[in-house]
Amino acid sequence: MKMHYQYYLTGQLIAFNTHKLNAFSKKFNAFPTVIFNKGNAYNPTTGHFTAPVDGISYFTAQICSNSGYILFFYLEKGSETMRVKVRLTATHQFEYNFNSCTPASCSVKLNIN
């Protein structure tokens, strides 16, 4: 009797880490300084992440500010042009006396591209 076992592990590691300093403006959506971009799914020019495979993705962001600033920021899922979008998180932060940081994170099902 012959026995044959095969085990296939398929998958792709996709990860990115970016930042932007002195980004206080009325609106910005891209973090141009890329620390790493494994899989090249993040576009630092547009700030868009394009899913290379179907699956569940986890995103986290941390925004820091000096005292006296009010921050609102969002993580959004949308079409390539962002004309159609869904707000996944809504975060508000205000600290009058101290510098502070505020995190946001979410899991979201994405389809390829």
TrEMBL record:
Entries under SUPFAM superfamilies matching the protein: TNF-like
Ranges of residues in domain C1q: 5-113
InterPro entries xrefs: C1q_dom, Tumour_necrosis_fac-like_dom
Name of protein: C1q domain-containing protein
Organism (species): Dreissena polymorpha
Lineage top rank: taxon: Eukaryota
Extent of the signal sequence: none
